[in-house]
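Two quick folds needed for the group meeting slides. Do the first one here.
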Amino acid sequence: MSDSTTAPSPVVLEAWFDLQCPDCFQALDDLHALRARYGDRLDVRLRHFPLAKNKHAYAAAQAAEEAFDQGRGWAYAEALLARTADLAERGEPVLLEVAAGLGLDAEEFDTALIDGRHLLTVDADQAEGQALKVTGTPTYLIGGERLDGGKSQEGLRARIEEIADRLLAD
């Protein structure tokens, strides 16, 4: 018998991002609106899909995983996405600057990028994304449905809300 006071499990929204992708930066507005609307009822999970055309995206994904280990993953991802042009131009020093700017241990970031401790997580995300037929970023997965924002983000938030509302009603 279940306890009726237990809150329902949140709906999971997987956001497949490339942290050097300007479209992913634009998608943050939608994520902020979704978090404001659903709060704890929506669990937004960052999944990594670094694109080959963005030469620092793979290192950025590893750095974001280090930020999650240090307790500031989403703050780091958002701060980094605000600097996609800077990252494209200057590369890995930007990853350490963003970490330091958030009060994270930048030296530990540098070590993590050298020792590759987050490679398996990033590789696993990328492999899973390929299996799900993710081809561009941002792409979302909610309720078993893949929504591709790599071509256009038009109407995506409304579609995510429609699916989330249905899942939360069940």
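Then this one, please, same format:
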Amino acid sequence: MSVAIDVVGGKWKLHLMWVLGEGPQRFGEIRRLLTGVSEKVLAENLRQLEASGVVHREIYPEIPPRVEYSLTPLGEELNVALRPLETWGDRNRDRILGRPAAIAG
């Protein structure tokens, strides 16, 4: 488990995995989807995920250059492994955040 946590640890990497799980994204689009992340932090996190082999950076030879980020097959596999964690968080959100749970009826 420590290897997986090393890859996705930190405030933004899980969010990046979720965003890229929807398909290839350009830097600007990722930044719009992740409100609150600075350009510097986003670039650092993308570089770290790329170095871990879970994100691919594609540069298209256009003027101006277009860069897209996507999950590699390894990243897709990790994203599948993270889904149960997301499900658990959704199911227990109110309890964890101290909100009254909805009454089942």
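Slide caption for protein two: The mean pLDDT is 91.
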